Amino acid sequence: MSIAVRRATVQDAAAYARIMGDPGVYPGLMQMPYTSEELWRARLVENSAPGKTDLPLAAELDGAVVGAAGLHPAGISPRRRHVLLLGISVLPEAQGHGVGSALMAALCDYADRWAGVLRIELGVYTDNARAIGLYKKFGFEIEGTLRGYAMRDGQFADTFAMARLHPNQPRIGGA
Ligand SMILES: CC(C)(COP(=O)(O)OP(=O)(O)OC[C@H]1O[C@@H](n2cnc3c(N)ncnc32)[C@H](O)[C@@H]1OP(=O)(O)O)[C@@H](O)C(=O)NCCC(=O)NCCS
């Protein structure tokens, strides 16, 4: 099986809607039911506007888009410019083949080597063992528990706040 990771474009709106609208995916995210291609087209257009620093990625497994992931600014305050927020999702039928790992490797490389980021943050439901395992594999640590953080399928669900600090903070290079 071949995995390719690339920047997502507006042409990926249908694939994004398929992934984020999958009942095996959106309960694990902060997404809502009844998403649509139009909604994702608008978001992808917005993300690619000049000056935007969001990084939306798409992952292809044997040529079909099965994964989506991204890094996003943590807010507008200049004091949080060293932080990016991470999101990731893979279609259920494509999980367990390394697509999530390929996306995480690309996001961490981008943050560490190109974006000058110190800290990557994310939230994950405390019972999402697969995602927590994936994040730990890439150096993320649990920093705390947020009780009743989000409504999920009729219940207020707890989440972990996880973060990864740059493993080898850059210095001034050259002679
Ligand atoms: C989390 C998710 C992105 C993982 O994607 P994936 O393509 O299955 O990931 P991979 O195949 O690369 O597996 C990644 C790692 O997950 C971990 N993992 C997998 N199953 C696990 C389990 N049952 N328990 C603990 N860790 C597990 C392992 O560390 C594994 O790496 P390894 O195979 O090298 O040991 C995917 O399950 C998903 O999209 N879930 C639904 C949406 C979601 O919950 N997103 C996260 C929101 S915070």
Describe this structure in words.
- The chain is of the alpha+beta class.
- The chain has one domain: Aminopeptidase.
- The chain is built from four helices and seven strands; from the N terminus they run E-H-H-E-E-E-H-E-H-E-E.
- The longest helix has 15 residues, at 99-113.
- Bound molecules: coenzyme A.
- Residues 25, 28-29, 88-90, 95-101, 122, 124, 128-131, 133-134, 137 line the site of coenzyme A.
Let me know the number of strands: 7
- Described by the principal axes of the CA atoms, the overall outline is globular
Give the full name of the CATH homologous superfamily. Gcn5-related N-acetyltransferase (GNAT)
| Element-level helix/strand string | EHHEEEHEHEE
The CATH first-level class comes to Alpha Beta
Q: Which architecture does the CATH hierarchy give at level 2?
A: 3-Layer(aba) Sandwich
Helix content: 10-25%
Mean pLDDT: 97
Total discrete domains: 1
Spell out which ligands are present.
coenzyme A
